[in-house]
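Box S2. Input/output pair 1.
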Amino acid sequence: MTSRIGVIADTHGFLHPRVADVFANVDHIVHAGDIGGEHVLRALKQLAPVTAVLGNNDGAEGLDIVRKTIGGVRMLITHILPRPRKLRADVAASLRKSPAEIVVFGHSHLPHNEVIDGVRFFNPASAGPRRFDYPTSVGIIEGARVVHVALDERSVDALQRRMNQLSRG
C-alpha cells in the first residue's frame, strides 16, 4: 500500500485550521522549516509522525539537510534551497552522493512542483500567516502523485499564478 505523506512549511507559529482536515489520513508529515514553535510540531504529531528541519526563523540558519525514506520515497528535506535550478552547493553535493526522488523545501513561500533531471522539487508554499498575494497551502505525496492543497478559496488562483515561479526568469 502506498504511503500518504503530508508536506508543510513556513507555518511561523500558526497552524491553519484546515491542516488537520487535509492531513487527517496521512501516514507521515514533513515540515520544511520556519516552524515557529514546538506547539506547531506537537499539534502535527497528534496527526502522524513528523520529520522536520529548522528554518532561518527557528533560531537556525535554515541550511540543515535531512535525508529520509518514507513509504519507499527517498527524500532530501531542507529549508533554504534556494532555487531548483540553482541549488546550494551542499544540497547538490548531497544529491550527487545519494540521489533522492524528491527534494522538499520551504523558505520562499512560493509553491513549486517540478521534475528536473529526474528529481522532483516540491515546496508546499506557506501554511502560516498570509504573505503578499501568495497562496496558503500544503502538499500531499501519494506514490507518484504530488499535489498542492489550497487552504482557502483565495489560494486556489494564487497557486496557479505563483506555481514554479522559482524556475522562471
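Box S3. Input/output pair 2.
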Amino acid sequence: MDATVIRCPSCGQANRVPALSSGKTAVCGKCKTPLTATNGHPVDVDDSTFRSTIGSGRFIVDFWAPWCGPCRQIAPVLEEIARERHDVRVAKLNVDQNPRTSSEFGVQGIPLLVFFRDGREAGRLTGAHPKSNIEAAIRQYFG
C-alpha cells in the first residue's frame, strides 16, 4: 500500500498517510487538523524544512523568487498541478531567502523545477514551461 507524507498546514508535523477510500479523510497525528493529499496548493519549504519535507514521496520543488517574471508565470500551473494530482506533491523554495539549499542544488537559473523521489533528485526542468511539458516530465521522472 502506497503512503504519502503530508506536512500538516497547521503545525508542520510530517504525517505518513496511506491511500484512503472514498469519503475517508486523514488527520494530523499531532494536532488533529484534517489533511488532504495535496492540501490544494504547493507547500512552502525553507532551508530548515527542505530535507524532512521531500524525504519521502514524489515532489516537484519549484526554486523561485518573487521578482522573477517567469516564476510568477508558472505559479498558476503549479497550483493547478497541486490541486489535480494526488501522486505528486508540489513544494516551493524561495532562492533569495534560502541560499543554503539553493547552493546545494546548484541553482543558477530560475524558475527551476527539480523532481525528487524519496529525497533523491530524479530530474530537472529549467525555465517557464507549459503544463504539458511539466506533465511529460512527471511521466518521465516518476514513471
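Caption for Box S3: The first strand starts at residue 3 and ends at 7. Residues 59 and 89 are 5 Å apart (CA to CA).
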